[in-house]
Amino acid sequence: AQRVTQPEKLLSVFKGAPVELKCNYSYSGSPELFWYVQYSRQRLQLLLRHISRESIKGFTADLNKGETSFHLKKPFAQEEDSAMYYCAYYNQGGKLIFGQGTELSVKP
Amino acid sequence: KAGVTQTPRYLIKTRGQQVTLSCSPISGHRSVSWYQQTPGQGLQFLFEYFSETQRNKGNFPGRFSGRQFSNSRSEMNVSTLELGDSALYLCASSLDLVFAGYTFGSGTRLTVV
Q1: Are B74 and B84 in contact (CB under 8 A)?
Q2: With an 8 Å Cβ cutoff, is A15 touching chain B?
Q3: Using CA atoms, how far apart are residues A33 and A97, in angstroms rounded to an integer?
Q4: Distance between CA B94 and CA B103 in Å, rounded?
Q5: Which chain A residues touch B103 with a CB distance below 8 Å?
Q6: Interval B40-94: pLDDT, tens
Q7: B21 vs A7: CA distance, rounded Å
Q8: What pairing do the DSSP bridges indicate for beta strands B108-112 and B10-13?
């Protein structure tokens, strides 16, 4: 079955430290992968699409087809990065399959 | 430009009742999907509509249904409510010309007592 796995429920780092939120998917072929972020009391919002290869708020994510991974990285974490992060895989027909989410806590 | 609007924001219903939630997508967006978010199960796909047709459905019982109108607005209905239906129900819309990611609404918080 198609599945998105985020192995860490909680990731706690200090401000200025590097961050890597892990995401693995189980699907063969050409996946469309996304990272969504949900700040406290705010709606879920799109952070990154793998296809656009962009950097948003200092975050980047590289698709590694060999390892079936799409980890989210930021070299220097900021306190305002504290949020829930969801990795998602797009299944044709309008369906996004989400991972369980990783709560990132950036401490001062 | 207005975002995805969901009404109502909060609902409290009794077991056995039925409920209808509403979603207005971003103007011009023709694809609308619904998700259930709970602490235990996370974000679960319910169904997706495009041009008034359901294209995809998640693994939810038949008590969960939806529809989309010609103006792309969508409703979802849950009949015979159970305590386990308590959740945040999220609606999302996209242009669906080339899928570039969904824009989500703030959700409707449903509590079944």
Answers
A1: no
A2: no
A3: 10
A4: 6
A5: 45-46
A6: 899 999 999 999 999 889 999 999 999 999 999 999 999 999 999 999 999 999 8
A7: 33
A8: parallel
